[in-house]
Amino acid sequence: MRVLNLFFTTTNNTKRVAETIEQAVTDLGHEVNTLRVKKDTDPETVDLLDHDFVFIGSGVYEWLPGKPMMDFLSKSHKKHMMSDMVSGDIKPCAPRKPGKMAIAYCTYGGCHLGINEAVPTTKYLMQLFDHLGFTVIAEWHIPGEYHGKYKALNEIGRLGDITGRPNQEDLRQVREMTTGILRT
Questions:
Q1: pTM of the predicted model, to two decimals?
Q2: Is residue 82 very low, low, confident or very high in pLDDT (cuts 50, 70, 90)?
Q3: CA distance 34 to 170
Q4: Would the N or C end of the chain have less CB density within 10 A of its end CB?
């Protein structure tokens, strides 16, 4: 199985999750291409349809993925959508492509609304893959600590004390979910 592991992060919370996914995939003997999306990542260098399974993740920034990830997805959408809206890889009614699956995940602090601050991010991340005909089989929302000027929010938000998260237990769960899904 060919696996693509796309992620964006500014604090390394999401990087820790992506590395955990990469290790679990590798341990199962699958081929994995892990790509950290940056401001200058060119969608032309990534063939999304050449992969059987895609993990896509980002931190949450004002309820959405980081701007470099949003730009990457927008450019990828344009790459796969033809002007007539029919002849490209994205088809009307978004027919499923057998054997193509995806998981969208995010790391979030959720100091005001908890997980409700994270849900729009995974919905956004999965849209391109759903349009391409991938079956999106899960959305994962993983608590992640705040950094820098927001660090004080780690102890006073709706999720309680999130200092140090994603922690070893969070990453163990990510590993278990990754392994469980790829074994089926």
A1: 0.96
A2: confident
A3: 20
A4: C
